[in-house]
Design brief:
Largest sheet: 6 strands, antiparallel
Helix content: 10-25%
Structural class: mainly beta
Number of domains: 3
Oligomer: single chain
């Protein structure tokens, strides 16, 4: 960030350099939004980055309405549908802040101070606009009709990548050369706010089949972490060997089976099946950080067990006893259990539970046992009749009772 954000009471709120903004017509209220956009998406404005602001200390009024004109003009940068960077000056009254910038640019945050040190630290590094993750997260929906029945169809959701900026490499860094005055000559107050550093970036434009270069404010850029080939090779070997991974960051526990590695706009991700959520999840690879503990199996025990050394024949009563014993064993060790369950409608699903217990209920003069626990698929407490559990696994993962 290249300037303070405090303003005098009653003045136009200032917008910091590096903040992400959009027109007020944009459907996203903030950076955490998960709104899925439908209808005509071609007229939705891009996310933009503030690269310069200018205050107007001279009071002016609209000649048609008499309304006081805006005090702040904002220069915004975005990547357009023409596969090129665009800059536009807009009134702050037209904008809403999606994500405020309250930190310094990546150059100012580094330990490098002299220009040679800065070159040594950042030349050839990969960067993108700070709007990249927001643009990657946008989703649009549309109706896909049945070719045999045009009056029916189903809604599909896919990425809305209209303004996705390219991944670039740094080829030059220099201080921003501001030619226009920064301060008002009468008031002595700063009227223009500009970036400290600009970065010349190179990228390949597929539309023109040429390499392009542009100087971009450092506040508008984010460094993309480099992933060493060994990290990718390690995950690839786990996939090939059919291994599993235990993840625990102190808050969330996961047992996953990595399935594939894919690349998305500068970042490597692992697609994996999560045995806690019973769904496919996406994990970003971060270099110099272990992905987790390698496991040969995602579970430690599985029931019912049909292998009896003494020749005992498995019966419903024996299988029921095994289930009760396994649940108690897992409860004492705070281990997740994963069940294959068939409901009253004979629909089969897999659920992983924590914080569970067995309760006995009298039904029609008969005692029926139920398993009650927190279902991670639904993120809510659920009840399962034990005699409808077809399979139970004690997972190689512990749950935290304090969470």
């Amino acid at each position: 960030m290249s300037e303070p954000t405090n303003t005098q009471p009653g003045s136009t709120p200032h917008i910091a350099i590096g903040s992400i903004v959009s027109l007020k017509t944009h459907p996203y209220p903030d950076a955490e939004s998960d709104v899925i956009v439908g209808g005509d998406t071609t007229h939705i404005s891009p996310f933009m980055i503030v690269v310069e602001t200018q205050k107007n200390f001279k009071t002016t009024y609209d000649e048609h309405t008499g309304v006081k004109q805006d005090e702040l003009s904002v220069k915004c940068l975005f990547f357009s549908t023409k596969d090129q960077f665009e800059e536009v000056w807009l009134s702050s009254k037209l904008l809403k802040t999606i994500k405020s910038n309250d930190s310094q640019d990546f150059i100012e945050r580094s330990v490098a101070r002299s220009l040679p040190e800065i070159y040594q630290a950042f030349i050839s590094k990969q960067v993108s606009l700070t709007t990249l993750n927001l643009e990657l997260g946008k989703r649009k929906s549309y109706m896909r009709s049945d070719e045999n029945n045009l009056t029916s169809g189903r809604t599909r959701v896919e990425g809305l990548l209209t303004y996705l900026s390219p991944v670039m490499q740094i080829v030059e860094i220099k201080r921003y050369d501001h030619k226009d005055p920064l301060y008002d000559s009468r008031r002595g107050e700063q009227k223009r706010f500009v970036p400290k550093w600009v970065v010349r970036c190179k990228w390949f434009n597929s539309e023109s089949s040429k390499f392009h270069e542009k100087f971009i404010a450092a506040d508008a850029l984010q460094l993309i972490p480099e992933i060493k080939p060994d990290a990718i090779k390690f995950v690839r070997n786990l996939i090939g060997q059919g291994k599993y991974i235990s993840l625990n960051d102190g808050q969330v526990t996961r047992v996953i089976a990595p399935k594939a590695i894919f690349y998305r706009s500068g970042y490597f991700h692992v697609s994996a099946f999560d045995y806690i959520l019973n769904s496919i999840i996406d994990i970003q690879l971060i270099d110099n950080e272990p992905i987790g503990l390698t496991l040969d199996s995602y579970f430690s025990e599985s029931y019912p067990d049909f292998n009896f050394d003494d020749g005992t024949v498995s019966t419903p009563a024996i299988r029921h006893e095994q289930m009760i014993s396994a649940i108690e064993e897992a409860r004492k060790s705070n281990s997740f259990i994963r069940i294959k369950y068939i409901n009253i409608n004979e629909n089969v699903s897999s659920r992983t539970l924590d914080s569970f217990k067995v309760v006995k209920i009298s039904e029609d003069e008969k005692i029926v046992e139920y398993l009650i626990g927190h279902c991670n698929l639904r993120n809510a407490e659920r009840t399962f009749r034990i005699d409808r559990i077809q399979k139970l696994e004690i997972l190689n993962a512990k749950f935290n009772l304090s969470i």
